Amino acid sequence: MEAFSKIVIIGLGLIGSSIAHAARRGKLAKEIAGFDISADVRARAAKIGFCDTVPDDIAAAVKGARLVILCTPVGAYKSVATAIAPHLAKGAILSDVGSVKGAVVRDVGPLVPPGVHFIPAHPIAGTEFSGPEAGFASLFDGRWTILTPLPGADAGAVARLRGFWECLGSQVDEMESGHHDLVLAITSHLPHLIAYNIVGTAHDLEAVTQGEVIKYSASGFRDFTRIAASDPTMWRDVFLNNRDAVLEVLGRFNEDLARLQQAVRDGDGDVLFDTFSRTRAIRKAIIEIGQESPAPNFGRDQKKP
Amino acid sequence: MEAFSKIVIIGLGLIGSSIAHAARRGKLAKEIAGFDISADVRARAAKIGFCDTVPDDIAAAVKGARLVILCTPVGAYKSVATAIAPHLAKGAILSDVGSVKGAVVRDVGPLVPPGVHFIPAHPIAGTEFSGPEAGFASLFDGRWTILTPLPGADAGAVARLRGFWECLGSQVDEMESGHHDLVLAITSHLPHLIAYNIVGTAHDLEAVTQGEVIKYSASGFRDFTRIAASDPTMWRDVFLNNRDAVLEVLGRFNEDLARLQQAVRDGDGDVLFDTFSRTRAIRKAIIEIGQESPAPNFGRDQKKP
After folding, report:
1. CATH entry, B7-175, from 3.30.465.10, 2.30.180.10, 3.40.50.720, 3.40.50.880
2. Residue A208: which of B137, B139, B186 has the nearest Cβ?
3. Strand intervals (E) in chain B
4. A27–chain B Cβ distance below 8 A for any pair
5. Is A73 exposed, middle or buried (0-12, 13-18, 19+ CB in 10 A)?
6. Which of A49, B127, B182, B188 shows the smallest number of beta carbons within 10 Å?
7. pTM for this predicted structure
8. Do the interacting molecules here have an ipTM over 0.85?
9. Which CATH superfamily, name and number, covers B179-267?
10. Measured between beta carbons, which residues in chain B are less than 8 angstroms from residue A124?
């Protein structure tokens, strides 16, 4: 891939800083500029040094950029797009990393100046940590990035963005934004909502102390606490911006859970056994395609003899 | 700890085989006998060799044992206890590893002959793998084991069982069986029910293919698939035998989820943000007490630069 003369990352958290690290690793840009609305985050990012420049002014940051990537929470996109639109160069690519795509098309699309290629994207990668210190170059290695180009998008620009993500280490898919939002509602948004909810329920029980929950968490609960430790602002914005798809899969989840609840109440061992049996194949497939470690407990801390 | 002259493990799956490995590592028994109702499992266990003997007859297995540990699914306890009761030596300790304790006291308690010390136990440890090949000596290292001795239990026998578990590598707590069942309902049983349920929901969606769920699972879903890959028979028996506590915490979970669902529907960002903010502290505490790895993604497969 030919390097971009300048790329700009707006929002210097886990994903933004990881893009900068990985772009530098791959020599994908002659210049990497970074911007964050927080002066504190800008100062920390400048100190770490994953960007060549971290201007205080968003207009200065995007000036002359050939690729601009929005890495803020989705709720900030409209104001960011409004601020940068007058300064985007003709032929530049404007992209993002948001976990929802329909709302991004709706909010940002109308603000994109003619001649700028707007191509929404979503790297399916992350950790439970946030902030500029959390980023690292290998975050996207072997993960998937989904591009959701609009109908009529410039094929050359889409290919260029695809090549960029491939050089960041990712595999790349393309799909329609609405379908993306439904796929992510079940694979990501619902799991996060459920995890946040169960950690909250445990937090509020009177009969079991928080100390007991923490002490005995290795029995299952701790697996939920990782994703329930993710950035609250980002996740608030996900749920505000993918309402319909989330409510749809949540409705299915509730119906299924009501059936399991009934089986527990009735002591119906066959329903329980059948439900618990058919889920192993999915995990096996996830391990087989390399999206999970087969080590017990994810290889957390235990060793085979 | 003075070694037992003979211990017997009944049920040679993940936990039973791990106890044998760890007991041998710690030289905690002069003889370790193992029994499993499955001839195939007995043959595999004998081949691996973590027991000194694997008799075909359960009465022969328990003969002369000073410590007998039930490691079968909880639903099999009553028939196992009936089979071994006439062969238990006076002064022997009868214990178990079941994830529920009230039902064990109810089912096994009346079958224990006078002079045998019945002390239920539950090691909070496991992996998503099952069978005699899954066991390893360090499974209990640093984990918690809960003893639920009945009122009036022999203090010397309880101390001896506590010492055994400590020598297996575990930390040991004691609590009343009913409280144990409530603590585990929230820390273990509800998380497993929820995980099984969400994997099932994803499995059944028509609009999203199973291939897509698997491919994009790193976005949260895969964290649920590990515990939803646990042994179905064991988990069926857990839910059949801890109904009241599970239904109680599930009721709380449903109430909390209904509130979050309403917040998503209403676009109430404050409720979402507040819920998502207060869960991080619990994870931090779990890491601090050594029950979890602080590495991103549990140190699954990604490295810091």
Report:
1. 3.40.50.720
2. B186
3. 7-10, 32-35, 67-70, 93-96, 117-118, 121-124, 144-147, 171-174
4. no
5. buried
6. A49
7. 0.90
8. yes
9. 6-phosphogluconate dehydrogenase C-terminal like domain (1.10.3660.10)
10. 216, 218-219
